[in-house]
Amino acid sequence: MSAEIWQQGYTQNRELSWLQFNARVLAEAQDTRVPLLERLKFLSIFTSNLDEFYMIRVGSLGDIAVLDPDGIDNKSGLTAREQLERIYAATTPLYEQRDAVFESVEQKLSSEGLQHVAMDALTPAEQKQLRHFFRTTVQPILSPQIVDSHHPFPHLGSKLTHVAALLKRKKGELLGLIPVPGSVPRVIYLQSGSGRFVLLEELLLSYADTVFEMYDVLEKTLFCITRNADINLDDEPFNPLLGSQELDVRAKMEKLLRRRSRLRVVRVELSRPISSHFTEFFRHRFAVDDRQIFLSRKAPLDLSYVFSLGEFFSDDRRAALSDPPFAPQQPAMLRPGQSLLRAAMKQDILLSYPYESMEPFLQMIREAANAPDVVSIRITIYRLARKAKLVEYLCAAAENGKDVTVLIELRARFDEQNNIDWSERLEEAGCKIIYGFEDYKVHSKICLITRNDRGVMRHITQVGTGNYNEKTAAQYTDVSLVTASESIGADAAAFFKNMALGNLQGSYQRLLVAPNGFKNQILFMMDEQIKLGSEGYILLKFNSLTDADIIARLSEASCAGVQVEMIIRGICCLLPGVPGKTENIRVTSIVGRYLEHSRIFCFGRGENEKMYIGSADFMTRNTVRRVEIACPIDSPEVRKRLHEILDAMLRDNVKSRVLLPDGSYCRKEPGEEEICAQELLMRKASDAARLAAESAAIPERTCLWQRLRRAFGKEN
């Protein structure tokens, strides 16, 4: 059924759905209710999202168009080439919208005293300042080059900005290139404290005539290229002569990372209109056509600099132009200073990031590393921060004689080198390192601590929806369960044993484990609700929906009268509200201050409800081609807390967008009360932490009062 699902009329193309998601990110930059500096950040996030989309998805489609030109997408019936054509057509308006939003935000910043100045609008004093800066600081480190028969075209890295100049000399025309140096700050302020600034690449573009002074500069522009980055470990065959399988995987990954920098070009971006004659240089050199060349008239090609602009303002003014500061709070289910390791022995504990701090989990690993009764720690790692206390504590555990096993995925896209470096550090400390499988990425988030409790082995298991990344735990919404359930612990122990043996066929009693035991159980629980008809209920929160079998089953549920509510941040290939197909399905998306990342699955209501949290989205890559884990929620208290999160998402009428049957999104109708889910959850976390602190302080105050009374003879 799934192969022909596109003919049913209630699905849409994955890539076009993703572009709609990124348009919602851009809409946050356009929203005047969002503080000005935050709007700039959303512009940068939109840009980096689009960069990665072209590197991976467009790059992959380009390969498929060559290898399987007649193959079609099972959600839209489009070939790879047809998908590319629609992507290019949908991308151009996004550039135009970004230019308009960027110009609007810059105008408002100018009224705040921070002005991005065009090179032709400089005062004579500023021109003099920049001329001196160029000659003394910039020009000495430039590496300009002409391209002709004696000067071959250099290798250009992906997303690195260059100046390109069409030059004329007696014998004809040639191309001149100037790489923008990375050793000079991009933001150049004009006259101390004025708030007027130019960008380094704009200065270089202006001075290209000086750099190429022996030629006539006919045209010039800033440009950057985007290369295909969709590398695959399987592209490099295993060579047993190179040594152990583990070391070979790491060596192959490092080799592929070097190859990534030389893959084909999938996009060219220009900063200004140029003639067709000049454009031919780009078409010919990078083997692209006009549809792959995009113009960014107002917004710089690289917007990463905007994160530094807040430094110009005073603390008070910067605060007024930014989101109110929020620090992750003391977890509501822990008393201040309470050990998570010890608390979890008594009851299940839920941590909710970024509203609550990740620190208790890190301290749990640190405590386990030093606890005499802990015999082993096992964990899967997909992405880590550049500086990771988790690694320090795991290394300390190994050095303390604990049996530490780390399953680290080297193919976490764009974090490959970081994970390679961490794997070497962990290995040096004595941790056992596993690299997973040739054909399956290990994306699960699970940690197992085993204790020897008076001769009986007991488990503390943590299962989460997000990475063990201390940086993103303050930026992404995720949930993390810590439980002493022995049935879950037994499954976790079996999981790590199976991973060590390379066994994907293992069976589990409680955990849902992809690629073999996740999707079929999800479909089974949907079938249970289908049997209930109009009494059935499905509530799901995750990031993307592309799996055709799950989409078909959701449609079947809708047709049976089951009410289906889904909170999907990104891609959704199912179209809700289609008569006779999906009319009982509602889909909302929330893009806000934090990246919505938690995955929560609910089937049924009340006492009959089955609830899970997990690492997997409902995408084919997760359900079929990755190792994923979902964990059941047994604790009524944890269930209650998860429903508070889901309820806040469903009630949101500030950031929430509703997916319509035609694939477009619209804002929810405002109610009598404005409800922003993320702000509501921040307030709840702060209130809970304050109450916990006050409760903890009462015994201390009582004890102090009693000591004072005794000291002054007021108590016998």
What can you see in these coordinates?
This protein has 716 residues and is an alpha/beta fold. It contains 19 helices and 27 strands. Strands 14, 18, 19, 20, 21, 23, 24, 25, 26 and 27 form a 10-stranded mixed sheet that branches. Strand 19 (537-542), helix 16 (548-559) and strand 20 (563-568) form a beta-alpha-beta unit. Helix 11 runs parallel beside helix 12.
Q: Return the structural class.
A: alpha/beta
| Residue share in β-strands | 15-25%
The geometry reads as: globular
- Calculate the terminal CA-CA distance, rounded to whole Å: 83 Å
The multimeric state of the shown protein is: single chain
Helix content: 25-40%
Strand runs, count: 27
> What value does the average pLDDT take?
92
| Low-confidence region ranges | 233-247
Rg over CA atoms, rounded to whole Å, is: 28 Å
How many DSSP H or I helices? 19
Summarize the main sheet.
10 strands, mixed
Brief overview:
With 716 residues, the protein is α/β, with parallel strands linked by helices. 39% of the residues lie in helices and 20% in strands. Helix 2 packs antiparallel against helix 3.
List the helices and strands and how they pair.
Elements: H1 14-30, H2 36-67, H3 80-111, E1 115-116, H4 124-138, E2 145-147, E3 162-169, E4 172-179, E5 187-190, E6 196-199, H5 200-206, H6 208-211, E7 216-227, H7 245-260, E8 265-270, H8 276-286, E9 293-295, H9 315-320, H10 340-344, E10 349-353, H11 359-370, E11 374-381, H12 389-399, E12 403-408, H13 416-428, E13 432-434, E14 441-442, E15 446-453, E16 456-464, E17 476-483, H14 486-501, E18 512-514, H15 519-532, E19 537-542, H16 548-559, E20 563-568, E21 585-590, E22 595-596, E23 600-603, E24 610-614, H17 620-623, E25 626-632, H18 636-651, E26 656-659, E27 665-667, H19 677-711
Parallel strand pairs: 1-6, 8-9, 11-12, 12-13, 14-25, 17-22, 19-20, 20-21
Antiparallel strand pairs: 2-4, 3-4, 3-7, 5-6, 7-8, 10-17, 11-15, 15-16, 16-17, 18-25, 19-23, 21-26, 23-24, 24-25, 26-27
Helix pairs in contact: 1-2, 1-3, 2-3, 11-12, 15-16, 18-19
